[in-house]
Design goal:
- The protein has 265 residues and is α/β, with parallel strands linked by helices.
- The chain is built from twelve helices and ten strands.
- It has two domains: 200 residues, 2-enoyl-CoA Hydratase, Chain A, domain 1, CATH 3.90.226.10; 47 residues.
- The strands form two sheets. It has a six-stranded mixed sheet with strand order 1-2-3-5-7-10, with helices on both faces.
- The longest helix has 16 residues.
- The radius of gyration is 19 Å and the shape is globular.
- The chain starts with 5 loop residues before the first strand and ends in a 10-residue tail after the last helix.
Length: 265
């Protein structure tokens, strides 16, 4: 697919996706959110892609939704309740895909991630943040509530009380604060953000993809399951992995004291 708002590159099992609207701080219209959803589905269907890195062009990761494009420019928002709800639901397909598709999604947060851009960032599995990155659930300052998964992902990372504080105030926090709260995994130099994320993704791409993908499914499903159901799921996934070629290769490489070569089957 030819994308209008995304730059997509593939190399050695890694898809690097850049939100490319720097003149608007990578704020996305409905069409842009649709492209993110299609991109994730393309990545899922492409067997050569083993991990996805998502970043932004210019000085922002994503400034959220382009409200003028999504809701119109009038003081009343420019759309009916049904129109707005349908537009938001269609856009939310992207963050749902990031979680449901079992390939790793890695965010390289090169700059500000606010509003829906924060939600997109949180929907990724692992987040590398530039030392210059900032984060905000800015919705309340516009008379709005979080969407694009913000109210789902944030309390699962920081707890409901801190999530409500960040949502109610719309506070802009820096990368080190985000690291302390567990919102990001690592803070890296600004000129190395994408490279650090790609290096991490490359390790996953070279790893046992059956096990990596099963682990993603198991961890996220555990958030909605009882311990009995989760242990049953673990046993099923382990059985699948143990009879795989990757497991045999992993054991053989360990015994032969060499680096394993995994094939994802």
């Amino acid at each position: 697919m030819d994308y209008k708002y995304l730059l997509v590159e593939k190399d050695q099992g890694i898809m690097v996706v850049t939100i490319n609207r720097p003149d608007k701080l990578n704020a996305l219209t409905a069409e842009g959110f649709e492209e993110l959803a299609v991109m994730s589905e393309d990545a899922a269907a492409d067997d050569s892609v083993r991990a996805i890195v998502l970043t932004g062009a210019g000085r922002a990761f994503c400034a959220g939704a382009d409200l003028s494009g999504l809701l119109g420019s009038g003081s009343g928002g420019g759309g009916t309740f049904g129109d707005v709800r349908e537009t938001v639901r269609l856009g939310q397909r992207s963050v749902l895909n990031f979680r449901r598709i079992d390939k790793p999604f890695i965010a390289a947060v090169n700059g500000d991630a606010v509003g829906a851009g924060f939600g997109i960032c949180l929907a990724c599995d692992v987040r590398f943040a530039s030392e210059k990155a900032r984060f905000s659930m800015i919705f309340v300052r516009r008379g709005l509530v979080p969407d694009y998964g913000g109210s789902y992902f944030l309390p699962r990372l920081v707890g409901p009380s801190k999530a409500l504080e960040l949502i109610w105030t719309g506070e802009l926090i820096d990368a080190e604060q985000a690291l302390r709260l567990g919102i990001v995994n690592q803070v890296v130099p600004a000129d190395n953000t994408v490279e650090a994320a790609i290096a991490f993704a490359r390790g996953l791409a070279e790893g046992p993809t059956l096990a990596i993908r099963a682990a993603k499914r198991t961890v996220y499903q555990s958030l909605e399951m009882t311990i009995d159901a989760e242990l049953d799921l673990e046993a099923n996934n382990q059985a699948v992995c143990l009879v795989s070629e990757d497991a045999r290769e992993g054991v053989a490489a360990f015994l032969e004291k060499r680096k394993p070569v995994f094939k994802g089957r």
